[in-house]
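Retro notes (design track)

What went well: tokenization of the new backbones is finally stable.
What didn't: we kept losing track of which sequence belonged to which structure.
Fix going forward: every design gets posted as structure first, then sequence, in one message. First example under the new rule, 374 residues:
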């Protein structure tokens, strides 16, 4: 569990909507500003869609203040959200479900390899996003759990394959030797393939209480987000871009919207579908997830050049060594951080109008992705 505690400690602040719902911090419609001219605070609150506009021409200053006080008295106070306990609790539930999903059986070698990487720790951000999105629209954790496990299986597969000598050739993952260093390249490839295949089987057979149309939609969504127009597309373009002298922001964004953001987007959308969301809600949550998916990669790029291998639990500086184009390389560290803040704000704007209490985990997860240290 230590692997789960350390990253949380880096963002240990608990947040209260009561603290930030005052006039100073009231949310405004998101406008994407120029990178160098943005110093807006990151909002942890929701605008009130029922709030009536004030006619300043008809009111004195004192009347405006009275009106503000009346409106504030009507606002619902949201209890403080304990993100640390939420994350530990959800991670524990996900770890238990993963442990039960992939059992040791014959042939032992392949299942040992699968479990070695799948149960090696990690933050479990993708499963949490899936569960939080499901609960946001009225679903239950148990309904989303098979899909949550599936996205973690696929994420683990992508890391196992990414670490291979023919790809990133990495020796360290989640603070441990990479899978091929323990089991060999051949078994690592096959174990990744097995996790990918089983992820779809698990969704199809273990999901309960959801009609077949929604399960079919979930399977289609999952396949699309990791295939040749999703995660794989990002991986291929990333590989083909190594060593190129001119890689612009649009090119880099394509890589990371597919390589990193696609599975995060899929995680949220799967949870929303299983929870019974309508198309408009799914669309807004998709936009939220796309923003935090790109945010995740921007922060990853920053950490790669500002943290040590020991702090990250994986090899630091490998993108620089491979001459890969990254956000810090194109924008610099500070402008990359400003870009990350704007992505976080834009993501949270998509949650306006949802129940603030149920949306709190997604807001906290967005902030966690933005402020993590590994």
């Amino acid at each position: 569990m230590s692997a789960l505690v350390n990253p949380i400690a880096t963002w240990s602040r608990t947040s209260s909507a009561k603290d930030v719902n005052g006039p100073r911090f009231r949310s405004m419609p998101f406008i994407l500003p120029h990178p160098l001219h943005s110093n807006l605070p990151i909002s942890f609150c929701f605008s009130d869609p029922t709030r009536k506009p004030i006619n300043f021409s008809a009111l004195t200053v004192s009347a405006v203040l009275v009106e503000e006080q009346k409106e504030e008295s009507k606002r619902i106070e949201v209890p403080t959200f304990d993100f640390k306990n939420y994350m530990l609790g959800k991670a524990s539930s996900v770890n238990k479900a993963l442990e039960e999903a992939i059992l040791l059986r014959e042939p032992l070698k392949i299942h040992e390899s699968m479990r070695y990487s799948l149960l090696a720790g990690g933050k479990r951000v993708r499963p949490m996003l899936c569960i939080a999105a499901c609960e946001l629209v009225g679903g239950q954790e148990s309904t989303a759990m098979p899909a949550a496990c599936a996205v973690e299986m696929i994420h683990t597969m992508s890391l196992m394959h990414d670490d291979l000598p023919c790809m990133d050739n990495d020796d360290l993952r989640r603070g441990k030797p990479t899978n091929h260093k323990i089991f060999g390249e051949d078994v690592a490839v096959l174990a990744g393939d097995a996790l990918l295949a089983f992820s779809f089987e698990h969704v199809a057979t273990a999901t309960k209480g959801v009609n077949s149309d929604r399960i079919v939609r979930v399977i289609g969504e999952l396949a699309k987000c990791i295939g040749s127009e999703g995660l794989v597309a990002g991986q291929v373009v990333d590989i083909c871009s190594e060593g190129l002298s001119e890689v612009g922001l649009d090119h880099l964004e394509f890589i990371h919207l597919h390589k990193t953001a696609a599975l995060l987007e899929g995680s949220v959308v799967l949870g929303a579908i299983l929870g019974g969301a309508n198309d408009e809600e799914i669309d807004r949550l998709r936009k939220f997830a796309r923003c935090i998916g790109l945010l995740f990669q921007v922060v990853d790029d920053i950490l790669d050049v500002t943290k040590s291998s020991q702090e990250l639990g994986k090899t630091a500086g490998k993108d620089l060594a491979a001459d890969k184009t990254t956000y810090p390389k194109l924008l610099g560290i500070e402008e990359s951080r400003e870009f990350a803040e704007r992505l976080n704000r834009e993501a949270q704007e998509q949650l306006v109008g949802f129940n603030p209490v149920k949306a709190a985990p997604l807001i906290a997860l967005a902030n966690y992705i933005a402020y993590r240290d590994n």
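Added context from the reviewer: The CA atoms of residues 143 and 208 lie 6 Å apart.
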